[in-house]
Amino acid sequence: CASTCAIERTTWLISLAFISLTLFLRIIVSSPYSSITVQVTLRDMALAVFLLAALGVSCSSAELLELSYTYNNDAPTSPKLTQFTHKIIKKGLNKFGIWVELNEFCTSEHAGTHLDAPVHFAEHGWAVEAIPTKRLWRVPAVVIDVSRQIKFSGQMNYEVKVKDLEDWEAAHGVIPDGCLVIIRTGWGAKSKNIRDYSGLDQHNKNNFPGSPEAKTSEISHAKLAKIENVTDYSG
């Protein structure tokens, strides 16, 4: 968002400068229609200034949040899948005195922080390359915090309920159409320990929060573009 805002600000500044230059030149060059030309140009300038100011306000109020975890050998992955490994092949000067960094890594496609494709759990769903960018870029987003419910219920397999969505709407208003809904579970605190993160029990079965009821509810079908789960693998 920050880089996009910077580009948009630059674009509007260039537009404003162009309009100002046009006005200046039209004032200098006398014409029978100069008064009409100046009037129209001033209106255009006023519009440009308004849009520039609005853009500055909207961008200055934006806050960037880093939601991902470092992708390294500690990246959380299902114990049943290939673990992430990283190997440094070259890090230093080559024979020509040029700095080179070269690495190799091996991983399951479902390791660490990542975007899961609908096809993962839907036979005819989109693969990653088929997901329209507009569905993921600069769309409304809300955070529904269920970490307290999980903590005080003691349920590792806590399921996000329709009531959790309804309670959020009662407190904050209707969830916008096409919105990204991020479910905060607090499970990230366990990311350093794969056994805790996976909730492995004595039978080596995974246990962790999920959202089957919420994802199949009328609210999610009508409103949501995506519900981000704590994890995407099943045990």
TrEMBL record:
Pfam families: Cyclase
InterPro entries (UniProt xref): KFase/CYL, KFase_sf
Signal peptide range in chain numbering: none
Membrane-spanning ranges: 12-33, 45-65
Signal keyword on record: no
Keywords tagged on the record: Membrane, Transmembrane, Transmembrane helix
Similarity annotation: Belongs to the Cyclase 1 superfamily.
Protein name, as recorded: Kynurenine formamidase
GO biological processes: L-tryptophan catabolic process to kynurenine
Protein source organism: Halocaridina rubra (Hawaiian red shrimp)
GO MF, one example: arylformamidase activity
